[in-house]
Amino acid sequence: MAEQGEEDREYREYRRLEDCEEDSPLGEEEEEQLLLHVTEGPTVHHPLQVSLTPPHIYHFHQRNGFACVVLSDVLELVQFLFVVTFSTFLLCCVDYDVLFATRPLNHSHVPEHTKVTLPDAVLPAPQCARRLRGSGWLLFLLVLAGAVWLCRLVTALRRLVGYWEIRSFYIRALGIPAEELCNHSWQSVQARLLALQRRQPLCVPRRELTELDIHHRILRFRNYTVAMVNKSLLPVRFRLPLLGPVVFLTRGLQFNLELLLFRGPAALFQNTWSLRPQVKRAGARRALARGL
Predict the structure, then answer these.
(1) Average pLDDT of the chain?
(2) What is the DSSP letter of 113?
(3) What is the pLDDT of residue 287?
(4) Which domain covers residue 89, as residue numbers?
(5) Interhelix angle for 186-199 vs 54-62, to 10°?
(6) Which of 3, 91, 154, 162 reaches 20 to 30 Å from 111, CA-CA?
(7) 52 and 171 share a domain?
(8) 151 and 67, same structural domain?
(9) Which residues pair with 122 in a beta bridge?
(10) Closest Cα partner for 163 from 146, 184, 141, 178?
(11) Rounded distance, CA 191 to CA 199, Å?
(12) Would you call 46 exposed, middle or buried from its count of C-beta atoms within 10 A (0-12, 13-18, 19+)?
């Protein structure tokens, strides 16, 4: 009973927030404008138009640079097209009766036990097109898939501009050529970033940027998720008969939780590190909780 009371007290203290209208000590309003300005020379009067955050710099390094990132995005687009095209081919252009030998190819000229090859089971292009046009739901799914692919293409093109800016930042500000990025650990990149911050202001927080600040910005969402799981605030633990307590967290459930808490229209965060101002106001928490 004493241990249970101690856990309840810890749980209540964990959920209690400060009833204040002010921002965090780091100054969330200033953190919302956190930008990294890359200069072409040792002076700061001619900055490049680039907006970077530690998570962008970190993920660019973990994905091994500009060429690998762009190639990955291109292959994802090609993979999507291949899956849709091949699925459509299997649905509309294959005669499965011939493929599984439930119907012979030709009753008069082909022996009964003639081996069936793949070209024998593929329907001619005109017949395949007729079957495709005759299926309304399949046409609808193809149109929907095409819209999704176009959205992913536009997103990839937009990210390409950001990737190029990060590449320029690595080369001009951190002194790491693109071909040598794979030879530098993240600790090395972080040390160069902090050294550059000390020589020339790159961001606008009230105090000097540290390794802990960078880690907080990179792992902010994950830290919140881990803390909520540890405190049983997320529905991932269940008690099953005979099996006892189990943890169940699928990719789909994880995606929905992240969309609800971090990336959706009613999310707690307005970017990768900053809470929305209304979330930090005590008077608005009950209304926000009902809306969430």
Answers:
(1) 76
(2) T
(3) 84
(4) 47-103+118-206
(5) 150
(6) 91
(7) yes
(8) yes
(9) 94
(10) 178
(11) 12
(12) exposed
Q: What share of the chain is helix, strand, coil (3-state, %, to 5)?
A: 60, 5, 35
Question: Rg of the chain over CA atoms, in angstroms?
Answer: 28
Phi, psi of 94, rounded to the nearest 5 degrees = -125, 130
In 134-284, alpha helices (H): 136-168, 186-199, 211-218, 220-230, 251-258
Q: Do 63 and 133 fall within a single domain? A: yes
- Does residue 55 form part of some domain? yes
Q: Is 91 exposed, middle or buried (0-12, 13-18, 19+ CB in 10 A)?
A: middle
- Cα(98)–Cα(233) distance, integer angstroms: 56
The tokens describing 30, both together, are 């200033």
What does the pLDDT look like over 216-256, one tens digit per residue? 888 888 888 888 888 888 888 888 888 888 888 888 888 88
- Residue 102 tokens read as 């439930």
SS3 57: helix
Query: Are 87 and 189 in the same domain?
Result: yes
| pLDDT attached to residue 153 | 94
Residue 29 resides in a domain: no
Residue 15 domain flag = no
pTM strictly above 0.70: no
* pLDDT beneath 70, residues of the chain: 1-52, 104-114, 201-207, 272-273
